[in-house]
Amino acid sequence: MSVVNVRLAGTGGQGLILAGLILAEAAARSHGKNVVQTNSYGPEARGGASKSDVIISDEVIYNPKPETIDVLLVLSQAACDKYCGELSPGGAVVFDSSGVVPPPGLKAMGADVTGIAVRELSNEIVANVVALGVLAGAFGLVSAEAVESAVLARVPAKAKDLNLKAVRRGIEEGRRIRSEMEKK
Amino acid sequence: MSGAKRGGIEVLSGNDMCVEGALAAGLSFFAGYPITPSSEIAESLSSILPRRGGCFVQMEDEIASLGAAIGASLTGRKSMTATSGPGYSLMQEHIGYAAMAEVPVVIINVMRGGPSTGLPTKAGQADVMQAAWGSHGDYRTAALCPSSVKECFETTVKAFEWAERFRIPVTVLPDEIIAHMRENVDTRCIAEAKPFDRLKPGKPPEEYEPYSYEISKEGAAIADFGRGYRFHVTGLAHDATGFPTNDPEEISRCNWRIIEKVEIARSAFTWTEKFMLEDAEILVFAYGSVARTAKDAVLRLRAAGIRAGLYRPVTIWPFPASEAREVFREARKVLVPELNAGQMAGEIEKYLTRGCDVEKINRLDGEIITPVQIMEAAKALHGRKKAQSSD
Question: Which value does ipTM take for this structure?
């Protein structure tokens, strides 16, 4: 695939804009891809719908806003309801299995994003980094090494361990949902 | 985030690269009042500038912000402010002042949806006319519309050069999409930028007159306060020394000077991109973020057998008049997509030949004009019979 349009969507404050940026950095720095990352958010600081779009391409990217989405990650029901209709033919949605129910008839994969962050890592704040790992693990958008180093480059020293655990656990979860999808 | 040592590929925003451009140009004074979608510029500079021996001041409002930047510039510091629509409206008072008093200063106005408070987090391109005509009275200024993250850097560096060289206020106008989008950028351009330092007067302080220089394409010298030179600075019509005057001859000289010094150098301001124009049947005129979707549309139209091309001004003011006249001479079908109700479409009508068919695409909802919208309009225009003569 020479162009992939990725969207990370949820509620303002979940850190998805940062996750989109880290994905873009991993693709550009480690894989030499062209990337464009754009956001949409409301005037409020928290709450409200939030989305982060990342275009990863071998070609020069002119249009900064994707017209359809190849890989959609949703961490809220509202985001799921709003954006599933924008999936490209063959596009896939990854939803947070603790709380989001996707509409029927889609290539949908449930990942335990919030569950891993809250129960295993005792910190809901890293759900965005788990989600990032899931995207890398399930779709190979960027390599495990690329996403790990991009995460580490973005977090303060005292949070490195936690974030490394989060991204690695996310990659593992991503690989699990991938193989489940392939079995179907 | 910004201001670090650069050298390789990084993923940066338009606002990040406006900051890098200003620093590479030699910025040493910033006064501003944060406003979405420009706040990241003030935020970054508040931490970078003091560490570099520069000065950052958060002012009480936008009027004061530009006033402070003008004052700092008079001491020889390269000075700037950054804002968005509502703040840019407030700054118009001092833009006229900088034009009249001939003080170099750079304003970055990240265009969001308007009017009034409008759409703080969404894009617009409706400040393009304001950038030329926003302050009262007659004056000439320059404004640049970047279309990529890298171009945010290049246009900001250029804005400083023009401000310093011609003693004028210059505005950089990224729209919200360009300011907030992030792209991979080869940051080696940062070290390669060549800052321009303002021309110095060739006369000793006792003979110096700030407003009697010869108008030239090379620009105008200005003395720095604090280096032995002193002169009077006012927004009133003034004579060669800077003091107010009621003499019609001196008033006329003062008012024509601020127009002619830009007009004489008009061609030096011309910065445009011509993309697949040679054989184009449909000419798309677009700038900023919309020029990107227009380029996408041009390629897809060509793939569908319609010869489209893009003419993109980077400098929108002074408008690239003589080049535009050439480009539009043969154009028969012109498409103008923009995130306003048709501001630049009105401007280019001056340069079109009779019988040229013009179609506008305008959006005021804060969203970008899509390639599909442009393609559909282009196909309709392409299929339309030869336009009727307008008289």
Answer: 0.93
